[in-house]
Amino acid sequence: MHELVKCNGIKEGKNGLGIVVCEGNVAGVFTQNRFKSPSVVVTEEHIKNGFIEGIIANSGNANAFTGRQGYENAKRMCQLLAEKLKTDVENIAVASTGVIGIQLDMEWIESRFEKVYAGLDNTEEKAMAFAKSIMTTDRFPKFAKYEEEFKIAGVCKGAGMIHPNMATMLAFVFTDARFEAVELKEMLKNAVKYSFNTISVDGDTSTNDMVLLVAKGECEVSRDRFLKGLKEVCLNLAKQIARDGEGATKLIKVTVINAKSEEEAFKGARAVVSSNLVKTAVFGCDPNWGRIIASLGYSEIEVNEELDLKLLGYKDGCKVGEVELVRNGVGLGNEGVAREVMKESDEIEFVIDLKLGNGNGYAYGCDLTYDYVRINSEYTT
Amino acid sequence: MHELVKCNGIKEGKNGLGIVVCEGNVAGVFTQNRFKSPSVVVTEEHIKNGFIEGIIANSGNANAFTGRQGYENAKRMCQLLAEKLKTDVENIAVASTGVIGIQLDMEWIESRFEKVYAGLDNTEEKAMAFAKSIMTTDRFPKFAKYEEEFKIAGVCKGAGMIHPNMATMLAFVFTDARFEAVELKEMLKNAVKYSFNTISVDGDTSTNDMVLLVAKGECEVSRDRFLKGLKEVCLNLAKQIARDGEGATKLIKVTVINAKSEEEAFKGARAVVSSNLVKTAVFGCDPNWGRIIASLGYSEIEVNEELDLKLLGYKDGCKVGEVELVRNGVGLGNEGVAREVMKESDEIEFVIDLKLGNGNGYAYGCDLTYDYVRINSEYTT
């Protein structure tokens, strides 16, 4: 990321402030929550002309459900950076994440702004500082990149409240490729559909989600090649978010193949990966495939009792084992082997073959653990 | 319940077997899960003619995803009771709850059947034995009754996997009133809509849910008066299920008033009460109203930023306190007081006034706790 943009950030306790200077065409995808943070509203307004010069982001406070004052504070954050860059306030995007319903501590933001701005640079260290500045309950900063003759690099934060159609998730993706804003928008929507919208941590969608894609325009590249790279970067980031779900110990992938349609395959996979009962079973290394069947059954997609179901386990990206659990609708009694594979794995994949059509889809999530409860019952205390 | 029917049951470890002898007109409401247990399929077939003479139920095994063999086993269970009652197998209903994907232990069922049947009686003790025989992770048996010149009494089991549109929940309601099966069906659907379908424990819906209503036909009563009593019994049972959600320490009620429509009010309330983030916040006695707002925002109902939100706490049915959290969209900073009320309460109600129309609705659920994770990560182990 540091090859593409200058950035910096600081984190003091729960509060963080980050800045990216990134002149280029821009596209964004935003939360579908009916209560949008004013920070989201302001950014949607500001990127309408398809161009930005910088991003300012804060963590610790979502600036959500903060009304007129929240809107003015989001504008003020943009203003701070716009003045430095000698540009219009509308060329700045703003993003926030954290607690809902409390006004931003503008005094803290303004008093730290100078220092963060002064430290802007295109080094790896500064990229890390930015990544850390937007973290909330994340356990690690999240980067991904793709390189051919053109570059794509991104950073994101996630952890809790992640769900299809976006959730307290901020992702910023940068490229040196050249595209019009309208082209970027179309490709970003496509990439988000197959990446960020396939992950689920706790089923909640946030007031603040945002994915921005900024293209500096230095490099010609075909749309097909760019889209391939963009999807790869977005999926990489999305998987990191799922793996870092609050309190998670295992990444869960659910793959549905041969459903009636691609849409049904994705919908079914999402229902399974979002099931609290499936998530707790994975935490307990319990190959309780009845819960997978039950959640698929209420997903409202067309199902087939003659399905096949298998479990694959991975550790550090390497396959640990593969166990058939159900063939043609009949349980094979392989739970003992499956349990051992689960114990050794940090990623569990369930592959469900519905034998109904050609639709394939997938979803990512994580297990539901004691730490999820701990983190979320203590959050504001 | 024992005034209305003869029953009995036994529980040995995870396995339970219960019998009710109840001649009368019958109506049922069943799971919407696409993978229905053969026990559900058989009962749906058997009550088509609107009449039954008995119910046989087992716990420990859901007889779900068990195919042709599962169907035959369910039929066999009915046959056992039909032979004793000297009636057709189609006059018996069957219900199952427990683990999915394993064939019923018919040897256990058949070997215990005689003893349970021989012990049938209309005493309180036998009603309790039946209630306990259908329990799985339930912590207490669940009864409710309503009496005027006519009687309605019911028993249910619930705990995990409870969600609107039914979930591993079995409820059996009996009355001495006289109604045709078609009238019973209509009233039962109405009562279920405002009771069992307003509760959510973990968002999963099961393969096995069933509510049966059996009317002995000894007593004339108007539909209005009967429906009032039926709703009361069903809501009472539903609330017991919500309160007994796996690992729950607090009952949560979410009331949405003045929404655009009644349907939107119920939908919004359900989204809030189902949110893992709201559920964990209640467990932590954290009046984190931002999470309530966020979950309402993704419920897809029409919302209004100028809403009012208050919290009410109850202990043993008595009000502990009432705290305004948000007025006209502005947080009032009353979290400290609210936290104290939450700590003293075993039931928390959030009342959200949307100020948009005349639609009122509610939903019941429970908090999400360490014990939920423990119970569900260890279930089959």
Please characterize this protein's 3D structure.
The structure is a homodimer of 381-residue chains. In chain A, 35% of the residues lie in helices and 31% in strands. In chain A, helix 1 packs across helix 2 (67-85), helix 2 (67-85) packs parallel to helix 3 and helix 5 (181-193) packs across helix 6 (223-243). In chain A, strands 1, 2, 3, 4, 5, 6, 7 and 9 form an eight-stranded mixed sheet that branches. In chain A, a hairpin with a 2-residue loop joins strand 11 (308-315) and strand 12. Chain A is of the alpha+beta class. Residues 161-167 of chain A have low confidence and may be disordered. The first copy, chain A, is built from eleven helices and 15 strands. At the A-B interface, helix 8, helix 9, strand 13 and helix 11 of A face helix 8, helix 9, strand 13 and helix 11 of B.
What would you say about this model in short?
With 381 residues, chain A is of the alpha+beta class. Chain A has helices spanning 38-46, 67-85, 106-118, 124-133, 181-193, 223-243, 262-274, 276-283, 289-297, 335-344, 370-377; strands spanning 6-12, 15-30, 51-61, 92-99, 142-147, 151-157, 170-177, 199-200, 210-219, 251-259, 308-315, 318-327, 330-331, 347-353, 359-366. The first copy, chain A, is 35% helix and 31% strand.
